[in-house]
Design brief:
The protein is α+β, with helices and mostly antiparallel strands. Helices cover 27% and strands 31% of the residues. The strands form three sheets. Strands 1, 2, 3, 4, 5 and 10 form a six-stranded antiparallel β-sheet that branches. Strand 8 and strand 9 form a beta hairpin. The longest helix is centred in the middle third of the chain and has 14 residues.
């Protein structure tokens, strides 16, 4: 079993309710146990800022699924919630986004999967919820989550509860 950290986000529809449903879907994955889930956080849009603010969260899973299979399961959950990926739109609005942030302490470099997530160490909207539930998790090449969150600006990330 491997501990995997997942970033959750959305900014279309009732994003808070969608993320709560996504936590349930994560807990129902085969060979997987939802070990921890963060609060929900209100965050400004990142990258493409001409869109509604996001609701973000993080989860820690204990899983026997290999990383590529876990990624496929995450993409399936996104689709079940109505996510349609448009390759022409980068960092655009979405009903649900699930990112595989960490898979144990492994470094994975596949065409469809990069772990740790390439921007994890610089994105407050991911690090703040992750630090709540996995402060000691190691970001290979960057140090512990608790240390990474201390190196970035986090004042625009606001807890909105469960």
């Amino acid at each position: 079993m491997t501990l995997a950290c997942i970033g959750l986000g959305g900014n279309l529809g009732d994003a808070a309710q969608t993320l709560r449903g996504a936590f349930e879907a994560l807990s129902a994955l085969p060979q997987t146990i939802l070990r921890a889930r963060s609060q929900l956080y209100g965050t400004p849009a990142w990258g493409n800022q001409d869109q509604p603010p996001f609701i973000n969260a993080a989860a820690v899973l204990e899983t026997a699924l290999p990383a590529p299979a876990l990624l496929e399961a995450l993409l399936g959950i996104e689709q079940a919630f109505g996510r349609v990926r448009d390759p022409a739109v980068h960092w655009g609005p979405r009903v649900l986004d699930l990112d595989l942030l960490l898979y144990g302490e492994q470094v994975i470099d596949l065409p469809q999967l990069k772990v740790p997530h390439p921007y994890l160490h610089e994105r407050a909207f991911v690090l703040v919820p992750l630090a709540e539930i996995a402060p000691d998790a190691l970001i290979p090449g960057q140090g512990r989550v608790r240390d990474a969150v201390m190196r970035i600006e986090t004042s625009q990330i606001v807890s909105i509860g469960g």
